[in-house]
Design brief:
CATH superfamily of the largest domain: Spore Coat Polysaccharide Biosynthesis Protein SpsA, Chain A
Number of domains: 2
CATH class of the largest domain: Alpha Beta
Number of helices: 11
Structural class: alpha/beta
Strand content: 15-25%
Number of strands: 10
Strand order of the largest sheet: 3-2-1-4-8-6-9
Shape: globular
Radius of gyration: 20 Å
């Protein structure tokens, strides 16, 4: 049974074996909470059966008003997010990841902008911050900076994600995150894609900024290729659920094979333009491999791999 609204905003955080990062998030969240003078709560979901986040919660429970802690013992980002929604009592929900930190105006901007636009869901930018990354040939701007959109821009489904989103709780009471994407990732895109198809309007809120900490092991071509493969696979799997049938699967397969041929042919020549150009071509080819895997129904559990 859905919780009755008691707060204006529920800030929901799912965490898995990252106590240091979680502590950093809460340090930056506190000033954002203080600047937004509305009734709010913070819900912390520990997705680790061993409760690695419990000491962090205990150290912060007296400093953050209405901070609550729950455990989802089954490793699944989808189940963790669903539990947060089930426990939430706010009219609005703000999702932020445990490896992020908000600007002090983050929550206040969302609260103000929601009255300016005819929408029930708003997304802010996620800007990368690199941690102790030594010199690398990878162009960080090229591979890690997402395109930003002016406030008020209506967003397309492919631009939706959960790392920094502010939306009406009622939307998530009718659109749960699917468990089948709990380890592969893409549970946020799949959920918001369904919302979009049902008529929900998503608006960009460019001043509601959070920063994402990027550790050294992610600033590698291997990690980018894994992410590309998982993204291609998940996107195709979701599209196949919306547009099922042999004909659609065949079209996807043919396009993916054609893409591999084209990008494979371009790869040797792209080396002449530099490693970053070649890496971008290789990533695009890997996305096509992910599409093929998505058509075949094979599963690549990206979250389980990255948690190792």
């Amino acid at each position: 049974m859905p919780q009755q609204n008691k707060f204006d905003i529920s800030i929901c955080i799912a965490t898995f074996k990252r106590p240091k990062e979680l502590n950093r998030l809460l340090e930056h969240l506190l000033p954002a909470l203080e600047k937004c003078a509305v009734d709010k709560e913070v819900i912390l979901i520990d997705n680790d059966a061993a409760q690695a986040a419990m000491p962090v919660f205990e150290s912060w429970r007296s400093r953050i008003k209405n901070l609550t802690y729950y455990v989802e013992p089954v490793q699944s980002i989808a189940l963790a997010r669903n539990l947060a929604v089930q426990k939430a009592r706010g009219t609005w929900i703000a999702f932020i990841d445990d490896d992020e930190r908000p600007h002090e105006n983050w929550l206040m901007v969302y609260w103000q902008e929601k009255d300016r636009w005819p929408a029930e869901a708003f997304l802010g930018p996620v800007l990368p911050v690199f941690e102790n990354v030594k010199d690398t040939w990878l162009d960080r701007d090229l591979f890690f900076n997402r395109k930003r959109h002016e406030t008020g821009t209506v967003l397309e489904p492919t631009q939706l994600r959960s790392g920094n989103i502010f939306l009406k709780r009622v939307l998530l009471q009718t659109h749960e995150f699917k468990q089948e994407y709990g380890l592969s990732g893409g549970e946020d895109f799949e959920c918001f894609y369904r919302m979009h198809r049902s008529g929900t309007v998503f608006i960009s809120c460019d001043n509601a900024i959070v920063h994402e900490h990027v550790p050294p092991d992610r600033v590698r071509l291997r990690w980018l290729l894994k992410r590309a493969f998982a993204g291609g696979q998940t996107y195709t799997k979701i599209r196949s659920e919306v547009f099922p049938g042999f004909l659609q699967s065949t079209k996807t397969l043919v396009k993916a094979l054609a893409g591999i041929v084209v990008f494979g042919a371009l790869l040797p020549f792209s080396m002449l333009a530099g490693f970053n150009v070649a890496a971008r071509i290789l990533i695009k080819a890997t996305v096509q491999l992910g599409h093929i895997a998505g058509v075949s129904g094979s599963a690549y559990n990206f979250y389980r791999e990255t948690a190792k």
